[in-house]
Amino acid sequence: MTRAYSIASPPNGNRFALCLNRVAEGLVSPRMFALKPGEHVEVNEPLGYFTLRQSEKPAVFIGTGTGIAPFRSILLNALPQSGPITLLFGARHPHGVLYREEFEELAQRHPHFRFIPTITRPDDAWSGGIGRVQAHLDAALAHHETTPDVYICGMKEMVDDVRALLKQKGFERKQIIYEKYD
Ligand SMILES: Cc1cc2nc3c(=O)[nH]c(=O)nc-3n(C[C@H](O)[C@H](O)[C@H](O)COP(=O)(O)OP(=O)(O)OC[C@H]3O[C@@H](n4cnc5c(N)ncnc54)[C@H](O)[C@@H]3O)c2cc1C
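The joint structure predicted for all components is written out below.
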């Protein structure tokens, strides 16, 4: 059984991090969670093209759930030398906003990086965005003076929805780079 997982960490010798969701009824992901230190897993070489295309160009990253994984990898690697980047990250609950402190800290350190977390089920303590990422698309795009490239990662339904919204706004195919998890 083979499954694809995005690398969630920047280049670091022979080590890498993954960001995994346990799909309760899934075949492989529960096994990943059951792995013990020292167990072996067969891994193919890294594949794919979901990478920062033009690092100096403004970019908007839109991710939900574990779709945050490639964005964390790219941000930690590219942010010091990149053009302006906005990260719009959607989750259900506050605890689903993975790496929140790390992104907030990056936003403080890099004025050209903006972090917009949004959740669909807020609690009283939540002070970020409310609703799905689609509801915050205009705010994420508005941050950039020139039209950004838009990178989308997550489940098919969200990716297709955001792509349709961007096409309505006149975005061209090559400005929309996406990765679907299902
Ligand atoms: C290019 C690519 C990169 C991926 N990167 C990641 C990653 O970084 N982290 C990760 O957790 N998954 C990632 N996935 C999804 C992963 O490959 C598996 O599909 C997922 O782990 C479920 O496998 P499974 O065998 O447990 O479930 P299966 O028995 O194959 O059942 C599939 C079910 O799981 C759902 N599903 C798939 N992925 C997720 C998810 N992340 N969250 C919730 N439901 C899901 C599908 O909609 C489907 O209903 C990626 C997929 C692709 C194609």
